[in-house]
From TrEMBL:
Pfam families in the record: 4HBT (PF03061)
Tree of life domain: Eukaryota
Name of the protein: Thioesterase domain-containing protein
PANTHER family registered for this protein in UniProt: UPF0644 PROTEIN PB2B4.06
First and last residue of the signal peptide: none
Thioesterase domain mapped to chain residues: 166-242
Length: 264
């Protein structure tokens, strides 16, 4: 899947040709038959071709701008529900890494915030205000307990744009932070923790309306039961690394936090 969509409008031009006879006076039939002829494209044919070409380009450009300028559907609306169903269908059938991970028993698939009620989900940033097809239209987590790794498949909707077609860096940072925390907090006996340090390097643009994978790993040698070190890479459909990040997570000594659980 290319990161840039290129619109191609194939057009075969068949120019009509008409005979142009010499202006030399015709003396007889045999002389006329022997005169050479030439041909040139009809002006009206060329005009029709140009009008068709530019008309098609105009319609396509207009539809593209309409899709980009028009407001995305509101969460919970019928349009939003239809868009979410389409996103789920694409996730189940068109994402190669999903099929690969599902076929490997070492990787366990789950929804984000599986331990939370719908009421609690609505109050969380990434499943509430940033939810719906316009935001984080889909978040699935594949975890590998043996390797202490997590791969999240996320759909980044148009409502997360900071610049037209490009996902806002802060929105990416939020998702990255949560995935780093998932890897670290699973190691903690308290099953809870907070971010102590977060470093992000943006390597390439991340485009809205696409699926991206967040590959997160825990540094098992440096991590303890109360302090975890983790790294994360955001990759596009071709495997190209768009963002690199690292984080440190700790269990507060003086602050009592509720347990998050395993499915968050």
């Amino acid at each position: 899947m290319n990161r840039h969509r290129i619109l191609q409008l194939p057009l075969r031009i068949h120019a009509a040709r008409i005979p142009i006879f010499s202006r030399v006076p015709l003396r007889n039939a045999s002389t006329a038959a022997s005169q050479p002829t030439s041909a040139q494209p009809s002006r009206w044919t060329r005009r029709l071709i140009y009008a068709t070409l530019f008309g098609a380009l105009g319609v396509s450009a207009g539809k593209f701008m309409d899709d980009k300028v028009s407001a995305p559907p509101n969460p919970g609306s019928m349009e939003d529900q239809a868009a979410l169903q389409e996103i789920q269908y694409l996730y189940d059938t068109r994402i190669p890494i999903v099929q690969k991970l599902r076929s490997n028993p070492d990787w366990q698939e789950s929804d984000v915030y599986g331990d939370f009620s719908e009421e609690k989900k609505a109050g969380r940033l990434t499943s509430g205000p940033l939810g719906g097809s316009r935001g984080l239209g889909l978040q699935k987590v594949f975890s590998n307990e043996k390797e202490q790794k997590i791969i999240s498949v996320v759909f980044l909707g148009p409502g997360l744009e900071g610049w037209p077609t490009m996902v806002h860096g802060g929105a990416l940072g939020t998702v990255i932070d949560e995935n780093l925390g998932r890897a670290a907090i699973r190691r903690f006996l308290a099953r809870t923790g907070v971010t102590a340090n977060l470093n992000i390097n943006y390597r390439a643009p991340v485009y809205s309306g696409n699926f991206y994978t967040f590959h997160t790993a825990l540094d098992q040698e440096r991590s303890t039961d109360t302090k975890g070190y983790a790294t994360c890479e955001v990759r596009d459909a071709t495997g190209h690394v768009c963002v690199e990040a690292s984080g440190i997570f700790v269990v507060p000594k003086k602050l009592k936090l509720a347990s998050i659980g395993d499915r968050f």
